[in-house]
Amino acid sequence: MNSTAQINAEEHKYWNSDSADYWVSQKSALDQFLEPWARLLVGAAQLSGGEQIADIGCGTGATTLKFAASVGTGGRVTGIDLSRKLIDSAISSARERAIENVMFVEADAAEYRFPCPQDLIVSRCGVMFFGDLVAAFSHLRSGLARAGRILLVVWRAPEQNEWYQFPVRCAAPFSDQEPKHDPDAPGAFTLADPSKVKQILVSAGFRNIQLRAVTEKLCVGQTVKSAAELFMAMGTIRNLLDRADVELLDQVKCHMSQGLEAYRQESGVYMNGTCWLVHASA
Ligand SMILES: C[S@@+](CC[C@H](N)C(=O)[O-])C[C@H]1O[C@@H](n2cnc3c(N)ncnc32)[C@H](O)[C@@H]1O
């Protein structure tokens, strides 16, 4: 078993390598794909205006900017991410849109010290990557004001998420490897088990913990071609096909594109995605 320090070092490397390039190069497609979850978070936050908010694992910043637009000029939103490339991309987006009540910090959220107590901590799929989940959530709780809250979107199980099952099912027959899942290791589905989420948050000192299952049609691409490109660039699919040559990769993409036709609608290609909306008080 790897130590927490080892896991954290691996995560830092991972989110500053090919994975960051994927999130930057596919930024608009991924933001469209994950947009229902940003909308869900902002709606559930029931902001009154003027809050101090932190977005954990903010990536290229779409959720952070959505909160900044909703919190009013008296409020402030801080996006925290350990990837330099993703923070740079988030800063560019804020500048392009002239959003001023926002700040982006390159830091490990499990250690970052907030300059003032936060009213709300939010995250869209950015809190599953800590080496020690209880320690990280305890630290986050210590950054909240007394009446502070945490509001998270985390993926439910892989087998319940069509957007994940579909590309894996398409690519697996072309690979000599099995798709790997270790629910105890950092990854997209680490917080899929609701009892595990509750246990972690209770151990971290949170109260009034509530989980609500939410299912949405997620847009995986405007066209079949862009959906196939998004899926082929996904980390899980790249890992499954890491020994494939260009010809085989073309075959997989072609097979995937054929399958994607069944999900095509007038405004794009849609698949089911399901998450837990997690809410707790400090
Ligand atoms: C799945 S991405 C989600 C990005 C973003 N929330 C979004 O919805 O577009 C996970 C993000 O968490 C960040 N991350 C992982 N571990 C982190 C840590 N310990 N501290 C801060 N950010 C972290 C990664 O760099 C990555 O940007």
Overall description:
- The chain has 282 residues and is an alpha/beta fold.
- It has a single domain, classed as Rossmann fold (3-Layer(aba) Sandwich), CATH 3.40.50.150.
- Helix content is 43%, strand content 23%.
- The chain has 11 helices and 8 strands.
- Strands 1, 2, 3, 4, 5, 6, 7 and 8 form an 8-stranded mixed β-sheet that branches.
- Strand 2, helix 5 and strand 3 form a beta-alpha-beta unit.
- Helix 7 crosses helix 11 and helix 9 packs across helix 11.
- The protein starts with a helix and ends with a strand.
- The model has no long low-confidence stretch (mean pLDDT 95).
- S-adenosylmethionine (SAM) binds next to helix 4 and strand 2.
- S-adenosylmethionine binds next to helix 4 and strand 2.
- Overall structural domain count: 1
At the fold tier of CATH, the topology name is: Rossmann fold
The CATH homologous superfamily corresponds to Vaccinia Virus protein VP39
Number of β-strand runs: 8
Unreliable stretches (pLDDT < 50, length at least 5) are: none
Topology:
Layout: H1 4-14, H2 18-25, H3 27-45, E1 52-56, H4 62-71, E2 76-81, H5 84-96, E3 102-106, E4 118-124, H6 133-142, E5 144-155, H7 162-171, H8 194-203, E6 207-221, H9 224-233, H10 235-240, H11 246-260, E7 264-265, E8 268-281
Helix pairs in contact: 3-4, 7-11, 9-11
Residues 11, 15, 34, 57-60, 62-63, 80-83, 86, 108-110, 124-126, 129-130 line the site of S-adenosylmethionine.
